[in-house]
Specification:
The chain has 11 helices and 3 strands. By secondary structure, the chain is mainly α. Strands 2-1-3 form a 3-stranded mixed sheet. Helix 4 packs antiparallel against helix 6, helix 4 packs parallel to helix 8 and helix 8 runs antiparallel to helix 9. It is globular.
Length: 320
């Protein structure tokens, strides 16, 4: 078959959460507020880390990259949903759907790998504190982020290219609020065996392998903490990884809920997806800020500087 005849669909329809027009303003306000909080919260984390030399350490380097990935991860789905609610349209172009899938998989994969790398960082810091500066050197930290990005970009590109070879017949409706890969594959009327094999293989690789690495790291961490004689020492050691452990629990708890849901296209399944794609990136900055005094002080410093320059700008505008 010629490439031009492979796809007979020009756009997909995203059903979203509700067909009732009365619910649309509520949904728009809810998701807009969550999106703004997500972007501002993670942007504050990035600014606080980059502007404070005291935080230029491997742990905070990975955290700033996680915040960047969270901003991009949420931005792949929420803005389009908000636009569709505002314009009362449920359509997304074929190219837009493939592009959304691609970036969703890229930044979702980066989140997974970065959380694993951060667990390894805490493992080295607690179990091998004397060798920490040597092991977690800037070159290794940069390499870990680059490898995580490369794997995520490569898989997402392969999966997106495989989607382009599929043909879609008459059913173009995706019962979700974004172009979810598994739901889109169900609409194809051509052979999707290769797509599904790659999907299951990489889902296992991106899910089981990193999670196993996190479990291994924290098993060794807990074992090391229990060997610390003083209660104060145990508390300090555990507090250095408590925020990361909370984020991991939230991310994997909601992420597994999506894939273990019996019907991901149901209202319940989409609600779990919101927890995974929107709520978790929104809560991450609060988790790290509330449980980390260094981040809290750095964020307060950034907010003070922003307030200072806003006051100057307002005073300047008032004199005009």
């Amino acid at each position: 078959m010629e490439p031009g005849n492979q796809t007979s669909v020009s756009e997909f329809l995203l059903l979203g959460f509700s067909q009732d027009p009365e619910h649309q303003p509520i949904l728009f306000g809810l998701f807009l507020s969550m999106f703004v909080v997500t972007v501002l919260g993670n942007l504050l984390i990035i600014l606080a880390i980059s502007s404070n030399s005291h935080l230029h350490t491997p742990m905070y380097f990975f955290l700033s990259n996680l915040s960047f990935a969270d901003i991009c991860f949420t931005s792949t789905t929420v803005p389009k949903m908000l636009l569709n609610i505002q314009t009362r349209s449920k359509s997304i172009s074929y190219a837009g759907c493939i592009t959304q899938m691609y970036f969703f998989m890229v930044f979702g994969g980066m989140d997974t790998f970065l959380l694993t790398v951060m667990a390894y960082d805490r493992f080295v810091a607690i179990c091998h504190p004397l060798h920490y500066p040597v092991i977690m050197n800037p070159s290794l930290c940069g390499l870990l982020v680059l490898v995580s990005s490369f794997i995520s970009l490569s898989y997402s590109l392969i999966q997106s290219l495989l989607m382009l070879r599929l043909s879609f017949c008459t059913n173009w409706v995706i019962p979700h609020f974004y172009c979810e890969l598994a739901q889109a594959l169900m609409l194809a009327c051509s052979d999707t065996l290769v797509n599904h094999i790659l999907l299951y293989m990489v889902t296992g690789f991106l899910g089981i392998a990193p999670f196993s690495g996190i479990l291994f790291s924290y098993t060794r961490i807990v074992s090391s903490i229990l060997r610390i004689p003083s209660a104060d020492g145990k508390y300090k050691a555990f507090s250095t990884c408590a925020s990361h452990l909370s984020v991991v629990s939230l991310f994997y708890g909601t992420g597994l809920g999506v894939y273990l849901s019996p019907d991901a296209s149901s209202w319940r399944g989409m609600t779990v997806s919101v927890m995974y794609t929107v709520v978790t990136p929104m809560l991450n900055p609060f988790i790290y800020s509330l449980r980390n005094s260094d981040i809290k002080r750095a964020v307060q410093k950034v907010l003070t500087q922003v307030s200072y320059w806003l006051a100057i700008l307002l005073e300047y505008c008032h004199t005009l």
